[in-house]
Amino acid sequence: MNRYIGRSQNKHFILFLLFVGYLVDYLDRMVMSVAVVSIKEEFNLDAAAVGAILSSFFLSYAIMQIPGGWLTDKLGSRKVLIWSIIVWSVFTVFTGFAWSLISLLVIRFLFGLGQGGYPSASQKGIADYYPRDERPKASAYLMSSNYFGMALAPLVAAPMILFMGWRNMFYVIGLLGILLTVAFWVYFKPKESTASNKTLKENSVPLKELLANSGLWKITVMWFAAGIVNWGLSSWIPSYLMEDRGMDLLSMGFYAALPGLSTGVAMLFSGWLLDRFFNNLEKYYAAFGMLMSGIFLYLMFTSTSIVAAMVYLNLCMIFKSFAFTVAFALPHKIMSKKVIGSAMGVINMGAQAAGFISPLVMGFIISLTGSFNGAFWFLIVCSGISIIAALSIKKNNQIAQSNDVDLLA
């Protein structure tokens, strides 16, 4: 108990630090969705090539999720967080040096490997500093940063591209990683990071048992299908607003930021709402959210009014965040701290595999049909898949909590 109290005094600052890290993480990755409009013109690319650029990051990011989670459980959250920030910042800068489609694909792939360790390590960081009963809510607060990062990206990228060009933009935002690395090096020091090599070797992560768990895979499928919607919209909305709705760059930057802002605020309340009213009913919370998300997505792209379409887009993203909250909060409630990094790696692998598939498939659909409508129907179908997967999740006791190494022990 005393050991926990000593570390809990700065747990809220640590959550804030992890939050800021995710903001920079998402800023570095999502500015490409804005920059690709200029890159497309400079390199004379079609929609399918643009989809490949947007997806190349997610391919490596998805591949890195399970190894990143395993390394986090094996080595501790501190080492993985720091190295992840260093690597992704280096390749953010390198993006500005790209000279062809192939170079962009390679750089974005390596960039994704760097960012791949952060999600599991940040969730492990929560488990390092918070007791079990506080982790779901802390996780929901942390993950709201994803949407604020999505909102920040177009607000930052659009004026920077307009005034300094897309290459200089990547140079500048890549340098933020230096400040972030220093902050984590100085302040993020959970007790586990000081463990001896002998302790690390003895820290066996039961991956075979974890991967055989059906409940874990149902959560993963639910978040994979929801991730198709999330990353499809995040990747293509800037192009949609400019090409289909006729907005200029600065107007697009403003409207594209609104869903991230509204959903980020909603996420701050979503964790409380889940904890207060949907305890042991998480699957219904996620399913209802995806049902409403699909309905509002349909209303968004069929509306003739830009204002109405933007309202529907915001509501679509807000309700989609219900599944997001469940995907990252429920594992903290039902899984051992010993395997939480690996479990989050598996779940987030599903979301990031969706990030690879969704922009690519949407790009091909847009190229084949010459319209965004078919691509949005693809997202609606995936909303239905997410609902089915959510409803198939059994009660919370499906996943064993044995052998937990809790901070209160």
Automatic annotation (TrEMBL):
The chain crosses the membrane at residues 12-31, 43-63, 83-111, 140-163, 169-188, 216-237, 249-272, 284-301, 307-330, 342-368, 374-393. Keywords: Membrane, Transmembrane, Transmembrane helix, Transport. Gene3D superfamilies: MFS general substrate transporter like domains. It comes from the Bacteria. It is a multi-pass membrane protein. This is MFS transporter. It comes from Peribacillus butanolivorans. InterPro entries: MFS, MFS_dom, MFS_Na/Anion_cotransporter, MFS_trans_sf. Its main location: membrane. The keyword Membrane applies. Residues 14-398 form the Major facilitator superfamily (MFS) profile domain. The keyword Transmembrane helix applies. GO terms for molecular function: transmembrane transporter activity. It is found in: Cell membrane. One of its GO terms (cellular component) is plasma membrane. It holds the Pfam family MFS_1.
